[in-house]
Specification:
Blueprint: H1 2-24, H2 33-50, H3 76-83, E1 91-93, H4 99-105, E2 111-116, H5 122-131, E3 138-146, H6 150-157, E4 167-173, E5 196-200, E6 216-220, H7 224-231, E7 239-243, E8 258-259, E9 265-269, H8 272-280, E10 282-284, E11 289-294, H9 303-309, E12 311-312, E13 320-329, E14 335-341, E15 360-367, H10 378-395, E16 400-409, H11 412-424, E17 435-439, H12 447-460, E18 466-472, H13 481-485, E19 488-494, H14 496-500
Parallel strand pairs: 1-2, 2-3, 3-4, 4-5, 5-6, 6-7, 7-9, 8-10, 9-11, 10-12, 11-15, 13-16, 16-17, 17-18, 18-19
Antiparallel strand pairs: 13-14, 14-15
């Protein structure tokens, strides 16, 4: 019997050797170790991205398995390559039972840590405290905690310097309780490489000592005095985003404006009143991009009030706005957006209230919070608001307006608004306008196009003409193009969709889909 067991063991070993030699002859087994390492890196990055369903919270159910674990079970060679590369083991999650293994295998490599505190404090003690023993080598830190753990979290973050930290995201569910005392500066005031900071629902007790090198700041739920105090310590700030309303504070607000001389863009998602309060105390570079997401633009205060308090450093000439896009979204909730660009070549195919395109210098989206409720005067709002905004901006000192192209999307009332503006404000209004694009519109009675035709004809008599009139993805186009051509110098462009649907009646209810308007 023992002889048979020995034979079976020898046979199994022979088969293993043969399989190993056979695997060694496959093309993938002949890849250099550096190439294998690059493949493993891509796998780790893909797995890391899959861990998130949005910007705020890691997806549950991944079991916290190391992204590179599976390649260590393919063959001995792959396992050795993976274990010899510490950077493959640096993405650490709070849900991982492999925490000790990850910390050991990452050796001294910089860490990328995402930690979501459960309501119980056991995980904070068992995992987060263990991770923060390695705080000096953490490169990216994202922490989601409950307010009752905030004091302990801040104590831990104040325990050591963060010498390699470049990006910090701290989200406290609720607000820091008043009993919490943060006496020591976060990271012992030593985070020389910190460039990106996101603070959610935190108050004045988050320290500003280490923020001198920040390039990007995103903040929610703080008071105006605390925010301005922090901004004064951020002379190199380039991108600033503020969301939600300012918290009440009994602290005084200094009257002098905070100079943000290197700021490239500012985005504010808050009420008009909050935006006025914030911009009143900021001095922006003349070329800074501005993005606003407002619940309403019905005053007081008004958009005119907002632009009147915006202060820009006088160095250099004002940006010249050369193109405009207006979009109306469907009523769930009912909202609109107006954007202005310094380029006539701006690609308007994608929409974001806070666009990345550097040429889009001003973006305003406003929204009614009553879901599934269209305001009773919605047609009037759509018809007048966009061009009221244009006139407000033309009168303010922030920009020069020489609009050469307009792109109106999703609402025939925009066309009536334009016709009204051109008719009532004189023939020289928008004298530089050369391109007019109408996109995703359903003409139900044709009155809008006839109004536009009449006013363009009036302008043509003063030798002020549209050079190019474009219709994209429009329904029910029911006016003779030759009639329009009389008032257009070059051409009228109708895409295939518009041609095929020129006289087809489309039920209005089919138009209410937000992607339809982008």
């Amino acid at each position: 019997m023992m002889h048979t067991d020995e034979d079976s063991t020898a046979l199994a070993e022979s088969m293993r050797v043969l399989r190993s030699r056979s695997n060694g002859r496959t093309p993938i087994s002949r890849l250099p170790d550096d190439i294998l390492f690059m493949v493993f890196e891509l796998l780790v990055e893909e797995k890391r991205l899959e861990e998130y369903t949005n910007d705020d919270y890691p997806r549950q159910g991944s079991n916290g398995l190391p992204a590179c674990l599976e390649v260590t079970h393919v063959c001995r060679h792959w396992r050795n390559v993976a274990l010899e590369r510490p950077t493959l083991w640096t993405c650490i999650s709070s849900t991982s039972p492999w925490l000790d293994v990850m910390l050991e295998r990452s050796q001294k490599a910089p860490l990328d840590v995402t930690f979501k505190c459960p309501y119980s404090s056991d995980s904070l003690r068992d995992c987060f405290e263990k991770v923060l023993l390695h705080l000096p080598r953490i490169k990216h830190l994202e922490l989601h905690a409950f307010s009752h753990e905030a004091g302990r979290v801040m104590d831990l973050l104040s325990s050591q310097p963060a010498s390699l930290l470049e990006r910090l995201k701290l989200n406290v569910a609720g607000y820091l309780p008043l009993a919490v005392s943060i006496s020591n500066p976060i990271f012992q005031a030593q985070a020389p490489l910190l460039r990106h900071l996101e603070i959610n629902h935190c108050d004045r007790r988050w320290s500003s000592y280490i923020f001198g090198g920040l390039r990007t700041l995103r903040v929610r739920g703080t008071s105006l005095p605390d925010l301005l105090s922090a901004l004064r310590c951020m002379p190199a700030l380039e991108q600033f985003t503020f969301q939600y309303d300012l918290l009440e504070s009994d602290q005084p607000v200094l009257l002098d404006k905070v100079p943000l001389t290197h700021l490239k863009s500012i985005a504010v998602k808050a009420t008009l009143e909050t935006a006025v309060s914030l911009f009143t105390h900021l001095a922006l570079p003349v070329d800074a991009k501005i993005a606003l997401h407002l619940p309403s633009i019905q005053g007081p205060p008004t958009l005119a009030d907002l632009f009147s308090v915006m202060n820009k450093h006088p160095d250099g000439s004002r940006p010249v706005l050369r193109s405009m896009r207006a979009i109306k979204f469907p009523p769930d909730p009912y909202s609109m957006a107006v954007q202005f660009s310094t380029s006539t070549a701006t690609n308007w195919s994608n929409y974001s209230w806070n666009p990345q395109d550097d040429d889009i210098r001003l973006s305003i989206e406003f929204i009614w919070q009553e879901f599934f409720h269209i305001p009773p005067n919605s047609a009037e709002i759509s018809r007048n608001t966009v061009f009221d905004i244009c006139q407000t901006i033309a009168r303010c000192s922030l920009f020069s307006t020489e609009l050469e192209s307009m792109h109106l999307v999703g609402c025939p009332d925009f066309v009536r608004g334009l016709a009204t503006a051109l008719r009532t404000e004189g023939s020289s209004t928008y004298a530089s306008l050369r391109v007019l694009e109408l996109r995703r519109m359903a003409w139900f009675d044709g009155d809008e196009l006839r109004e536009l035709r009449d006013v363009l004809k009036m302008r043509a008599q003063h030798n002020i003409r549209i050079h190019n009139l474009r219709f994209k993805l429009c329904n029910n186009f029911a006016i003779d193009p030759m009639v329009l051509r009389e008032v257009v110098v070059n051409d009228i462009d109708r895409d295939q969709y518009t041609l095929e649907n020129s006289y087809e009646i489309v039920p209005r209810k089919q138009m209410w889909h937000r992607s339809y308007f982008c």
